[in-house]
Amino acid sequence: MVVADRCIAVLASVIVCSMDKFKGWGKSMLKTAMQQLKSDLKQLPLTLGKLIGAVLAVIGLPWAINVATRRPDPAFADLGPWLALGIAGIVVFVCCSRLAEKRREKRAEPALAAGEKTRVSLLSWILLLSVIAGLILASFVLTR
């Protein structure tokens, strides 16, 4: 309890000191923060679309693999819906990602460098593929 009170006091003093340091920047910082908030809110539907696409892919593909590997002779009727769900998830993720990038290009913000765009795009793909790989691994471990 004493540690928490001490941390709050230190945090409050840091905030007060930083406010004094940037006293003249108040309106411009607030304006920039509001612009960033509006920009993020405009991107929110596409971000949620990417999340839904990732969830669909993460559910569909591992379950399709589970159906294909756990039954002696899986029928396409058993495998097809799960495979379609996973592919649809990847398509939704890619489409929302590309639409978000196009929307970002239309705004009058400083553009990211080519390396930065690649890094951000790569990060999204790495996260998606690592979640899929983790769920595939979990499905194999849990079903054995």
Outline the structure in words:
It is a single chain. 88% of the residues lie in helices and 0% in strands. The chain has one domain. Helix 2 packs parallel to helix 4. It contains 4 helices and no strands. The protein is mostly helical.
Which of globular, elongated, flat, extended, rod-shaped describes the shape? elongated
User: Could you tell me the mean pLDDT?
Assistant: 76
The topology string of helices and strands comes to HHHH
Number-wise, the strands total: 0
Distance between the termini: 47 Å
Structural class estimated from helices and strands: mainly alpha
Amount of beta strand? under 5%
Stretches with pLDDT under 50, minimum 5 residues: none
Instruction: Give the proportion of residues in helices.
Output: over 70%
Mind telling me the C-alpha Rg? 23 Å
Number of helices: 4
Give a quick account of the main beta sheet: strands, pairing sense, barrel closure: none
Overall number of structural domains: 1
Secondary-structure map:
Layout (H helix, E strand, L loop, with lengths): L1 H20 L4 H45 L5 H31 L7 H30 L1
Briefly, what is this?
With 144 residues, the chain is mainly α.
Labels describing this entry:
mainly alpha, single chain, about 140 residues
